[in-house]
Design brief:
Layout (H helix, E strand, L loop, with lengths): L6 H17 L14 H13 L5 E2 H8 L3 H13 L3 E5 L7 E5 L1 H22 L4 H22 L1 E5 L4 H17 L20 E8 L2 E12 L2 E9 L8 H15 L4 E6 L4 H9 L3 E3 L10 E6 L3
Parallel strand pairs: 7-8
Antiparallel strand pairs: 1-3, 2-3, 4-5, 5-6, 6-7, 8-10, 9-10
């Protein structure tokens, strides 16, 4: 079970936020010395980053930036009035409104990037090269951990499209990695991981499924973990361990004190993770065409 967050951790997080937002000028209505606040500047950046002749839909911008639809609409209207963006209907779906930069918008973003690079350079110049490297490493770690913290792992109905999408992607990955390929008939059926028989978990990042894992009853008091998978875009965050922990907690909730799993010989990174998470290699507990290593963990409440 996740421990409660200490007041010291909360205070440190807020203290850093206050310092950083002031240091980069986020509190100024003229961000980077341009005639717009940070919100509009970021919106221009995201539209430019999307590329393509049609631009990007307002729906996608809402998802990327986590903005209220009304607030986003007002910002894009201001940018349109300033001649920075053009709004139009999607060429294949009239329900979607698209935003793309005008020539003036491209000039604005180019200057914005130049000023942002100059600001970052000015900050880093105050540090010796070894300290710059430490700061860069720390920021990379912070970004990874913040992203992991924002991902939710929750049980879903194994029949849902999100669950099946994850399993399809998992099967595609294994079919590529296994020398013998992978037969989708080996995937768990929804009824095997539903109700009293088990559970299916999906990891979501900004409402997008980026990982999954399944738990099914193997015998009284014993569960089996299956199909732990993470989308390539979300790997190296520590998400597989989050999913594994959620499955273990679900097993405990069901009073299953032991969990087992098996894995293929080529999945060496999975074997390393299982050992690091307290799993012990055991003799084969069943016949499985893709299994070459079998593991078990006794759970403590």
């Amino acid at each position: 079970m996740t421990e409660s967050v200490s007041t010291e951790h909360v205070a440190a997080f807020r203290r850093f936020n206050r310092y950083f937002t002031r240091r980069i000028g986020a509190l100024n209505d003229h961000y980077l010395g341009q005639d717009r606040p940070l919100g509009e500047a970021r919106l221009l950046f995201e539209i430019a980053a999307a590329g393509g002749p049609d631009g990007i839909s307002l729906r996608e911008l809402r998802t990327r930036l986590g903005l209220d639809a009304g607030y986003l609409s007002r910002m894009t209207k201001r940018l349109q009035d300033q001649g920075m963006v053009v709004l139009s209907a999607h060429p294949e779906d009239n329900r979607l409104r698209m935003a793309r930069l005008t020539p003036a918008g491209h000039v604005e973003v180019k200057e914005q990037n130049r000023r942002a690079d100059a600001l970052a350079t000015g900050v880093l110049e105050g540090l010796a090269p070894d300290l710059r490297a430490r700061l860069t490493e720390a920021m990379t770690t912070a970004g990874r951990l913040l992203r992991l913290a924002a991902i939710t792992v929750k049980p879903v109905d194994a029949h849902t499209p999100d669950a099946r999408t994850c399993l399809d992607a998992y099967a595609d990955d294994l079919d590529t990695r296994f020398p013998e390929g992978f037969d989708r008939a080996d995937l768990v059926a929804p009824e095997e991981v539903s109700g009293d028989a088990g559970a299916f978990f999906v990891a979501y990042e900004e409402d997008r499924p980026v990982g999954c894992g399944a738990l099914r009853r193997l015998e009284p008091g014993v569960g089996e973990i299956k199909h732990v998978w993470v989308h390539p875009d979300a790997r190296r965050l520590g998400l597989a361990r989050r999913i594994l922990e959620a499955l273990e907690q679900e097993a405990l909730r069901r009073a299953w004190r032991v969990v087992r799993l098996d894995t293929h010989a080529v999945l060496t990174e999975a074997q390393t993770m299982y050992r690091a998470c307290g799993y012990t290699e055991i003799p084969a507990y069943g016949e499985h065409v893709y299994a070459s290593h079998w593991f078990e963990k006794r759970l403590a409440s």
